[in-house]
Amino acid sequence: MLARGEAFRPSKLQYRTRETIFAGVLLLAAAGAARAQTVSCPASITVLETVQAPAGWQSGAVKAVHKFERVSIFNGKQGGQEYDLAPDDEKGSGRAVVQTWFLKDYRSMNLFMRCRYRGTEATLAIDLPPPLETCTFTFELRKDGAIIGEPTAVCR
User: Fold this and answer.
1) Which among 17, 4, 40 is positioned nearest to 153, based on CA atoms?
2) Tell me, what's the pLDDT at 8?
């Protein structure tokens, strides 16, 4: 216990403990920043569907869940001049396909991804910041060319 007016002086062990805690906090922050540098399309969206009813009819709104189907990568401004980019690489094995975009080659303009969902025209879009270098779309094709299964789109 300290006498009145006496200053507290931390021991070497207390300094080391503080340094260890500080280093741990920095590592957690760096890990969080690394995770923040990944963008992926949500697996599903919920859409409020409504009908424009003809005269004399009543309409009702319903919530509908739509699963992710495919992605498009664009140069330009969302809702403005948009340039749909073809994948830079495509690999397939059986029905499985992996398409890849190398983003550094397109950085002269803004880049964004648009996620598309089954059974709806509703989409989600997000800008792709410069630290992201590649986007990968992984999916399976049915014989008639339709996308099946649980496709994924991830930019890193």
Assistant:
1) 40
2) 55
Closest by CA to 73, choosing from 99, 53, 97, 91, is 99
Structural domain contains residue 17: no
Q: Which two tokens stand for residue 65?
A: 């869940």
Residue 127, H or E segment: strand 123-127
**Virtual CA dihedral for 33, 39, 43, 44, nearest 10 degrees?**
110
Q: Provide the domain limits for residue 95.
A: 40-155
Domain count for the chain: 1
Q: Does 35 fall in a domain?
A: no
User: Chain-wide mean pLDDT for the chain?
Assistant: 85
- Please state, in angstroms and as integers, the Cα–Cα distance from residue 87 to each residue in 40, 59, 137, following that order: 16, 42, 9
Residue range 46-99, pLDDT digits in tens:
999 999 999 999 999 999 999 999 999 999 999 889 999 999 999 999 999 999
Residue 134 within a domain: yes
